[in-house]
Specification:
The protein folds into two domains: 188 residues, 3-Layer(aba) Sandwich (Rossmann fold); 176 residues, Glycogen Phosphorylase B (Rossmann fold). Helix 3 crosses helix 4, helix 4 packs across helix 5 and helix 8 packs across helix 13. 46% of the residues lie in helices and 16% in strands. It starts with a strand and ends with a helix. The chain is of the alpha/beta class. Helix 8 links the parallel strand 8 and strand 9. The radius of gyration is 21 Å and the shape is globular. A seven-stranded parallel beta sheet has the order 3-2-1-4-5-6-7, sandwiched between helices. Strands 10-9-8-11-12-13 form a six-stranded parallel beta sheet, sandwiched between helices.
């Protein structure tokens, strides 16, 4: 039995966190046991992990002197009950979890990279400083560096990470959970006050400059002039009417009552099943889970040409330059004007692409093979 401890920055329902949840709940329980340490709080996913029988600890790290004591507590946990493998997720966990694991005498450390843009325009100084420190330590701390996309691998190699240690394992998708669902589609549309004649265009992304909600809303304004029955539905952490920064952005566009804001939602599959088109307007991505989940639900996507988004959708969707709201609007308009037949055909092809190339089972198998291989060294 291989015992794995996952160290993650937090447990909000974002991309890397959800991928970790999918992984630990899908691994072969006769060969692997999993535990999770959150550097911050339990977050949205903590209770889901606990309900699935995965032990979870939250260290509650913050910007105060108690932080060092929390790190010592993690070292004590590692020393008292040494795991076979330590898998870290994202920069702060890579740095803190990796260094503390080494300090505790553990050497099967795997870093997780789920980001592909390391520019100053879209990253905080602390994030870049942490990533650069990881780059400097990448030759000594991790056994392997798992990148979720080729774009992430190339960006981090250029930033100084040890290329020889990188391993590409893309995100995977649960095609049993994320699937076309007529009942969920109707129920969700009823909740939104939308009829079947309404054309729903969705964006699932937390409120962050990287996600470029402004380009999406500008494209929505253009589309509404051509498709007055279009309804623009946005979900994600911080995407709600109580967020003054988001509402200030929204007021710049003439969208009348054709916008719905849902904040973070617990059942994303219902959201995607209800959409006619899903958009990713991001300025930077690695391997977007929301796009793959939409595709698994049989919904065609319009994505920006960042990270591995174009590779993910292939010919089943449309790729446009990032930051180009006019191109974004034109691509969505093509799918709306094409009618249900075009969208259904593309959606069916999108689902097949996910099933054949990006299944969750194949990704879990890759992680399991990686950990098993490490035990033989």
């Amino acid at each position: 039995m291989i015992r794995i401890v996952h160290v993650i920055t937090g447990l909000a329902a974002d991309g890397a966190e959800r991928m970790m949840l999918n992984l630990v709940t899908r691994m072969d329980s006769e060969r692997f046991t999993n535990e999770v340490i959150s550097l911050s709080t339990l977050g949205d996913l903590g209770t889901k992990l606990q309900a699935a029988g995965i032990p979870v600890r939250a260290l509650g790290l913050s910007k105060n002197p108690a932080t060092f004591a929390a790190l010592l507590r993690m070292r004590r946990l590692f020393r008292q009950s040494p795991p076979d493998v330590v898998q870290t997720w994202m920069y702060h966990a890579d740095l803190m979890g990796g260094v503390i694991a080494q300090w505790a005498g553990l050497h099967r450390v795997f870093w997780g990279i789920h980001h592909s843009n390391l520019g100053f325009a879209t990253n905080k100084f602390l994030t870049l400083a942490t990533a650069k420190t990881c780059a400097l330590l990448s030759g000594a701390v991790p056994l392997r560096i798992v990148c979720c996309s080729e774009a992430a691998r190339e960006a981090h190699t250029a930033f100084g990470y040890q290329d020889a240690k990188t391993e590409l394992i893309p995100n995977g998708f649960d095609t049993e959970l994320f699937r076309p669902d007529a009942q969920a589609r109707k129920a969700m549309r009823d909740e939104l006050g939308a009829s079947e004649e309404d054309q729903l265009v969705g964006l699932a992304a937390r409120f962050h400059p990287d996600k470029d909600h402004g380009s999406f809303l500008k494209a929505a304004e253009t589309l509404l002039a051509q498709h007055p029955n279009a309804l623009f539905v946005l979900c994600g952490r911080g995407v709600h009417w109580r967020n003054p920064d988001f509402t200030l952005l929204l007021r710049q566009f003439e969208l009348r009552d054709r916008v719905r804001l849902l904040d973070a939602i617990p059942n994303a599959q219902r959201f995607f099943a209800a959409m006619d088109v899903v958009v990713s307007s991001s300025r930077t991505e690695a391997f977007p889970l929301a796009v793959g989940e939409s595709m698994a639900c049989g919904v065609p996507c319009v994505v920006t040409n960042v990270g591995d988004s174009a590779l993910l959708v292939g010919a089943t969707g449309i790729t446009v330059p990032s930051g180009d709201s006019a191109a974004l609007a034109a691509a969505v308009e093509k799918l709306l004007a094409g009618g249900p037949t075009l969208r259904n055909d593309l959606g069916a092809a999108a689902r097949r692409r996910i099933q054949e190339r990006f299944s969750l089972d194949s990704v879990v198998a890759h992680y399991q093979e990686l950990y098993t291989r490490a035990m033989l060294n």
